[in-house]
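Hey all, quick one. A colleague (J.T.) asked me to put the zinc ion job into the tracker so the inputs and the structure tokens live in one place instead of scattered across chat threads. No bug as far as I know, just bookkeeping. Sequence used:
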Amino acid sequence: MSSPTDLPPSVRRIVDEIENEIGESDVAADDIAGRADRSAAAPDNGRVEAAVEEILREIGEDPERDGLVGTPERVHRMYTELTAGYHVDPERLMNGAVFDVRYSEMVVVKDIPFYSLCEHHLLPFFGTAAVAYIPRGRVIGLSKIPRVVEMYARRLQVQERLTQQVADFLQTRLEPQGVGVVIEATHLCAVMRGIRKPGTIMTTSAVLGLFRTRDRTRAEFFAHLDRPAPGA
Ligand SMILES: [Zn+2]
């Protein structure tokens, strides 16, 4: 059976950072040993390296030349790190950060930066996320919301699904009165290929509960997004 220690250290570190608050990691390290159900990263069997070498050859490069000798290994490590989100345990991420609070106004966290990989081209798309919800007796620690975004961004994605997954996660975990997520991103596969339109930004949104059914709520959310952040 695979154990969490099978993850390469660089990936383990990223997963820990997403799951834990700063300063919590010692506690986390203690109970890592007790967990045997964490999925391991791709085995280190050299197949990714071989495949990258094959790509280099197919595009007319010489994988043996100085600059490329270490490339297959670097690419393998990079993709494992950029897809570390698959190994994040949502239970550990949420652990102890849901609080019973009698607060039923909108909570908005915006300008959350993220980097993801488009699953169609394996090229980056990146931008910012804004997440809002209206609690129904339960709130989540503020610092957790960017981690939820990070957990889903560090996977192969399409922007629409990333947006929906963040919304669904909060809806399921907090059972709030509603959730709204807006993501704005630049896709390198769009700006680097074909007709160059640098600056093209794609916007996606997912609205659940009151954010879907009540115009006033949706309008309040979008008004928050238009407002520049303090100090911006
Ligand atoms: Zn793409």
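Adding what we noticed when we looked at it: The radius of gyration is 20 Å. The longest helix spans residues 159-174.
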